[in-house]
Amino acid sequence: MDAAQVKERARALGADLVGIASAAALNAFPPDPRWPQTPERISPYCKSVIVLAQRIPAGAFRCKTNVPVQYIDMLVLRKMDKVAYRLADALETAGFPSFVTAAQETDWSYKRASYGRLSTRHLGVEAGLGTLGLEVNILTPEFGPRIYLTGVLTELELAPDRPMTEQVCIGESCSRCLHSCPADAVLHFGIDKRACATEAQEFGFSQIAKFFDRFIPAPRDEKHAMVSSRDLFGFWQGLLRVVGSFGDCPRCLAVCPVGDDYHAHLADHQKQIPERTPEKVALGRAYKSARKTGAPVDGLNDWNIRWVGVDGYQGIVARQLQDFKRRQRERAAAGEPENESEER
Ligand code: B12
Ligand code: SF4
Ligand code: SF4
User: 136, 174, 186: which to mutate for ligand 3, most atoms within 8 A of CB?
Assistant: First the structure.
């Protein structure tokens, strides 16, 4: 099987986006060399990583609460794992040992479990699917950040895709993710993980640990109250359906204006950002001036710029919007629904 056949197979199985990264490049460029999230740490034989992305349907981002996104996230992750498993199985049947990485688990020994065994966003960039945004989500031209990703590690040597050098994120002059963030966690091409986790993992591991820290020394009647509290109910729902234990906050995904799905279904609903404050706007402007004056910015340093896009923002979103509007006009002229999805 060659790269084109593998990609065709992945799409036929239901992947929305697929790209290929060479294991050698991933081994040479770990996101943070102090904690190398590399294929060689997992398997000495891996030659290529096939990166699959599954889009999150935009409809869920048009609702009154975050609940529909939280549920559909889980369905998307389940579908993605199935597609990846079937692809790995097909490769192995063809004679090449292959397996799927855990897309959501983290490694206890790496930065107190805040790192996965591989960083699937960085996999996506190396496989040419997009570049990292101001909030370090990977932004794809097709669906912006509204995707989940996973990787199939294979011993088959495949021609890799080339990483994009053009920055997909509009950058500091946009800052919509920063304006929307309820936890003030969006840094300058970086993220305050602890702050984000308070919203994105309301019933995550650290909340469970804190709960039991309070529970163990509490007097008996307080313990009774805690047993029937909202916290414990949240943990139960998290165990049952994963909802609440991660993937709770969709705001930086919802408001990002990159992607045809945004133009088609979200531009109207997400136009206003209720969380926007003068302080957040000022912070975005400060980021902009720091970049303009060349002040040191961790997320844009010589190592990290590889994943942000070495050529900077060159108008990809504006070009896409024009192209999207042209296709809308053509569909309207042909009497077809304006926002119908493209064949992929
Ligand atoms: C742990 C985790 C979290 C944690 C920590 C997030 C983080 N940034 O690492 C928390 C709870 C905060 C979180 C939140 C969210 N997550 Co999350 N998360 C993960 C997970 C499981 C591991 C993350 C990881 O390994 N990061 C790798 C490290 C390298 O990332 P980093 O520290 O940010 O990277 C920087 C550092 O290396 C930094 N750096 C710092 N110091 C130094 C020093 C040196 C010397 C150098 C060179 C570099 C360096 O530079 C890098 C680039 O900026 C991944 C799945 C996976 N296996 O990748 C999903 C994942 C990243 N999450 C995802 C999502 C969607 C979310 C949320 C939107 C919540 C939601 N609705 O699901 C938010 C978004 C927050 C955000 N804007 O980043 C998706 C992202 C999809 C996308 N489009 O990008 C992923 C990829 C899940 C998946 N399988 O698809 N997440
Ligand atoms: S997931 Fe929510 S809290 Fe985390 S960075 Fe995005 S908007 Fe902020
Ligand atoms: S909302 Fe704007 S600044 Fe944030 S990631 Fe998307 S394009 Fe970049």
Answer: 174
